[in-house]
Amino acid sequence: MSEAAADEELADGVMAALRRVIDPELGYNIVDLGLVYRVEIDKGTVHVVMTTTTRGCPATDYLRDGATDAVDSALGVESVTVELTYDPPWTPEMMSQKAKEHLGIGDGGW
Amino acid sequence: MTGVTLSRWTMSYFALAVLCLLGAQALMALGFGYPAADVAAPETLLLVHLVAVGWLSLLMCGALFQFVPVLVARPIHSNGLALPTLACLVAGLALLLFGFLQLAGGAGPAWSLLPWGGGLLALGFALALWNLGCTLWAARPLALPSRFVTAGLASLAATALLGFTFTLVFGGVSSAQPLVALTAQGVPLHIVAGFGGWLTFTAMGVSYRLLAMFMLAPELDGASTRWAFRLGVAALAVAIIGGTLIVWLGARPGWMLLAAGLLGLAALGLYGRDIVQLYKRRKRRVIELNSRMASVALVNLAAAALLGIVLVGTGTLGDHSGALLFLVAFGWLSGLGLAKLYKIVAFLTWLECYGPVLGKVDAPRVQDLVVEPRAVRFFIFYYAAMWVGTLALLAGAPLLFRAGAVGMLLATGAIAAELVRTRRLADVRGAVRLPEGARQPRLLVSMVRQG
């Protein structure tokens, strides 16, 4: 298997692992909520850039550690680092269509 | 640790607060204090302080120790101060309540307990103010919700100082003229600083952030919010600082309070407009029980403002001040408090129990810890009973008021039972209830993960 194909396979495994981590408040996985901004893979080394729905959220450390543990458990991962960023800040528009439908996200109104 | 940690003692604050609310409602149901006694009778003062300090202030302090760090995205200044603060507040409240019983002719030592109670309460609030103040100070420049909370905390300082002054004079410790004058004329200032500044203004600031968070609505920081803050601060300054100076000049603070009331109404009008915007612009179409029940509390705040206007306009505020205060305390502040408590207890319990195993095992959602269709009936019953009580006070029907108090007591008891079920994870079904590595939370103390 080529190196690129191996990285692609690993990326699929990493994203599947991150989907096991839910945001407690919204009750949906952090990938489809748009909280995972970037996943960089270099052979077995994974770097995840993610955010939380609100800066200062008490769940922040749990979400970061949960993402770390989940990725670490993916097949082929040798090391993982998770970086938190609030640039840009998260907005509900970043959710996948699936997540928006699940949570009944709309454009507001009564 | 980069995030905000759980506050170990917040659940203890909440539990004691709910017990005080239940106690106060039981006393009202038994006919203790107003309207059976005079609005200024020691029995009524006991009841008012059981609600204002025991229920609302303990609830607010416990919530702020957890949520000021969220507001400013920084850790609390000192986790260690929360317990001594709680001890001072509870001991101070107990002595204050016994002091009021002494005034009512009850048994007790020959010396008054009031100054001791007032002193311990002032110390407890000073510790809370130091802890929260240092947290806010380190986070400057502050966003608008945090500024509301800061103004609320300044009002708490004024409330506690005025209250301590009253206990010194009533307890016979001081007969200094400025303190005696304040005690004679300053009770309205104490009420405005406490219910208007500390409790309402702080709740307004917290609600701007929490409602936006829970409903996925855009956070507001426009001209309307800025003017709501400025006018509210002006109202509090006119009432508390202006009122105190007027009293010391030998006059009654009535006109000063009327001016403050007009400023406060303008601030409330803008706040109401903002809140309507938050609900209208929310991204979550289906909102949770806490946001729905908070909206009823906000309607009660508007109703209280309208009632205040009518009573002042008809010159009957003196006759019905008890009804107005009841609506503010139980319709607005307690309604909002119970609604947010229902959410916060579930959220903090989830973090404590399932946060450490997140990503390792399947975990329930926060919503899975509660059963909203069951709890909604208790909230509706609470609000209905509260309105029966308010209307009974306005109509001068004490028996009907006691019936309303019984209804509120039953509803609050049922909501408290829901909170206990949430802490016990009683409504979480299946294997996700306590997965490997998760620990059953304790009822009154949070197990805090240390970084």
Please summarize what this structure is:
Chain A has 110 residues and is α+β, with helices and mostly antiparallel strands. Chain A is built from three helices and five strands; from the N terminus they run H-E-E-E-E-H-E-H.
Structure description:
The complex is a heterodimer of chains A (110) and B (451). Chain A has a single domain (3-96), classed as GMP Synthetase, Chain A, domain 3. Helices cover 33% and strands 21% of the residues of chain A. Chain A contains 3 helices and 5 strands; from the N terminus they run αββββαβα. In chain A, α1 (3-18) crosses α2. Chain A is globular. The relative contact order of chain A is 0.20. Chain B has a domain at 289-424. Chain B has 451 residues and is mostly helical. Chain B has helices spanning 10-29, 42-72, 82-103, 114-137, 144-170, 177-185, 187-215, 223-248, 254-280, 289-313, 317-354, 372-395, 398-423. The mean pLDDT of chain B is 94. Chain B is globular. The A-B interface holds A 17, 20-22, 24-25, 27, 52-70, 73, 84, 92, 103-110 and B 1-6, 66, 69-74, 213-214, 216-217, 279-286, 347-348, 350-351, 354-356, 358-360, 362-363, 365-368, 449, 451.
Structure keywords:
heterodimer; A: about 110 residues; alpha+beta; GMP Synthetase, Chain A, domain 3; three-stranded mixed sheet; two-stranded antiparallel ribbon; 5 strands; about 35% helix; B: about 450 residues; mainly alpha; 13 helices
